[in-house]
Amino acid sequence: MNEIRDPYYVDFSVTPYCNLKCSFCSASACGKYSKTYEISFDEVKDIFNQFDENNIMRVSIEGGEPFLRSDILDILELVNNHMFSCYINTNGTLITEEIAKRISTSGVEKICISIDGPEEVHDRSRGIKGTFKKVKEAVGYLQKYDVPIDAIITLTKINAKYMIETFDVIKNMGINNVAIMLLATVGEASKNHVSIDYSEWKEVLINLTDLKKENKLPVNLQIVHTGESQLPWELYLPLMEAGREEDLSMWIPPNITSSLEESDFGCTAGRDNLAIDGFGNVFGCSLMISSMELSAGNVLKDKLSNIWRNSEIFQMMRSSKLDNIEGKCKDCKLLYKCKGGCRACAYAKSLNYKFSDERCPVCRGERIWS
């Protein structure tokens, strides 16, 4: 069995509630008017202390929408008392000038704001008209107080055709660092048909790769795929079909190191990282939060260190090997390079942690590895 390392980073949902209506929400966030429970401030303080006790290096504060909490600024100011670095993931709609000013004196290193397209596209993506204007105002407030900002684009059918326009919009806001998040079919995204087709994604990726190679992108762009292998099918397959495997290095550095063993799934959930939802439930990663069967325990009822080291769920994740994979991936000759795709997506579709990630067109029989 793999050595049990201290977790490196945590995605911490300080609230399950959200003020928007994104059809692709991985966490199946609750509406803001349906509040029945929320982790208390004192419980957050205790959880932060446990992060230090477990030598956690990085924490992402998220939701739901974290700024729905009336005490979120007090929570952020706690960060100064701890060892971990801290980011915030937010939709940006609730950030006022006063909030931006207080963030600037907290221990938060960076704000990651969702910007899915030009105004009309962004509003449609987020489900509420007027969202884009609020985000633009928030960006201005944060920049006034020198708070570093990254932009996050969640790629869906709604915005796939508007990537270049979206980059220009983000650049004009004064933001340079942008990440495209490839959609994980979990939570609401597993119920709604918002994922782009493989052929459309291939066209988008080839176009972005060309622009990146020619230094014509207006922003510093990265693509965040759902698995952690060095050969994720989302990037490799389109480039391979175009005869451009060498261009994978535009998105994944060739000398990148991995903590995973050769026989491991390409998933660091429960190995290097974990996630905590707005009710204290602990999971391997944030994409698993909508699958309660994958909860490893609850940090309000048990110590995080005990959950991390002794949970049967985490032990299962660590002991699962590529030899154990079920479904069509088992016969793929590149399984040990691709490493089986995303475990959260595989589970959401099959209710089997060891099943194939059927988002892959090769797995569905629509493509053949050459």
Automatic annotation (TrEMBL):
Residues covered by the Radical SAM core domain: 2-218
Lineage: Bacteria, Bacillati, Bacillota, Clostridia, Lachnospirales
Name of the protein in question: Radical SAM protein
Keyword terms of this UniProt record: 4Fe-4S, Iron, Iron-sulfur, Metal-binding, S-adenosyl-L-methionine
Gene3D superfamilies the UniProt entry points to: Aldolase class I
SUPFAM superfamilies: Radical SAM enzymes (SSF102114)
Organism name: Catonella massiliensis
Required cofactor names: [4Fe-4S] cluster
Pfam families from the UniProt entry: Radical_SAM (PF04055), SPASM (PF13186)
InterPro entries the record matches: 4Fe4S-binding_SPASM_dom, Aldolase_TIM, Elp3/MiaA/NifB-like_rSAM, PqqE-like, Radical_SAM_PqqE_MftC-like, rSAM, rSAM_sf
